[in-house]
Amino acid sequence: MEVKLLPVLNRQLVSLDRLRGADQLGEEFVRSLKRTYQTYSGDTNRYALIRELLDLYDILLACRPRMANLILDLQKTLIFLAEKENAGVLDLSNFTDSLLRLKKARMDRAGEAGAEVLSRGQTILLHSHSRTLKFILEHAVGKVELPDVIVAEQDQNKTTRLMISLKRCGYKFKVVSEYSLSHVLEELDFALFGALTLDSHGNLIVGPGSSALMCQLSRARVPVYLAITTNKLSFWEDSFDAAFSELRKKERAGIEYEKQVFSHDLIPLDVCKGIITERGVLTPPQMRMVFDKMQRAFLDREKLIRSLV
Fold first, then answer.
1. Which residues pair with 245 in a beta bridge?
2. What are φ and ψ of residue 167, in 5° steps?
3. Torsional sign, CA 273, 278, 280, 286
4. For the CA atoms of the chain, what is the radius of gyration?
5. Class of the CATH domain delimited by 107-294
6. What angle do CA 285, 289, 293 make, to 5 degrees?
7. What is the domain partition of the chain in residue ranges?
8. pLDDT in tens, 243-299
9. What's the count of helices (H) and strands (E) in the chain, helices before strands?
C-alpha cells in the first residue's frame, strides 16, 4: 500500500471523483478554499499568498489523472492575485463566490442543451453518474417529454445514485447488466455518458467500463452523446497515467504481484455524435476548435503565473 503524500492525495481525489463526480468535487474544493481563506492566519502579503497557492497548484499538476476543473479554478485565482494590487485573504474569499456563480451559470446552460437532446429520444441508455448528467435529467423535467431510460449497471453506488435521481425526477427506467447490453441495443435511440475530461490528444477520459460500452454502441450505430462542461478540459501534452499501484498477494497460491489500478478509461472523441456543453451541443470538430482556443488562453495564463515567482 502506497504511503507517500502525493500518491495518497492522488488516490483520495480519484475516490472523491468517483463518489461525488468532478463537478461536485470542484465545488467542494472551492468552498474549502473559501473556508481556508476565512481562517488563514499566516502571511497575508499578496506575494506570500501567491507562493502558497502556487505550491498547491503544482501539487495538483503532479496528480494523475489531473483534476482539470480544480486546476483551472486555482489558475484563475492566481491570475486574480497577480492583477489586483493589495489583494488579501478577504478579496480571495470574495473571489471564490464569483467562481461558484460561474459554475452555476455554466451548469444551467449545459442543462438547457442537455434537455434539448433528451427530447430527441423515446428510449435512452445511461451508464455514468455525474453531477452534469444529474442536472440535465432534472432540468428536462417539465420542459420536454421524458424518455424511458435503460440503466447499464456498473459500480453499485453509482448505479444506486443514478436510480435515485431517475425516480425522483419521474423517469421510467429499467436496469440491465453492462455486460448484457447486446440484448437491448435495438431498443435504444441514443446513449448519454459523462466524462472526467478531454485531453490534448483528442481522448475522452471516462469512467471505468464506459469505453467498452461506447465502442459497442458505436459499432451498433447507436448515437452516443457525452456531457462535459469546458472547465474540465485538460490542456497538457503528456499522456494519461495509472493513478496508483497496489502490491497484492495470493497467499494460498504463493503468488505476489503488482497491480496497476487505472482510475478511468480512454475513448476517442470521434466516437461521439455530439458533446453537450454550456456552449451548446457540439460536433467533435467543433469541440476541437473550442479546445484549441481555450488551450491557447490557458497556456498564456500559465506563462504569466510562472513569471510571478
1. 260
2. -65, -45
3. negative
4. 21
5. alpha beta
6. 165
7. 5-105, 107-294
8. 555 555 566 667 877 766 666 788 999 999 999 999 999 999 999 999 999 999 999
9. 9, 12
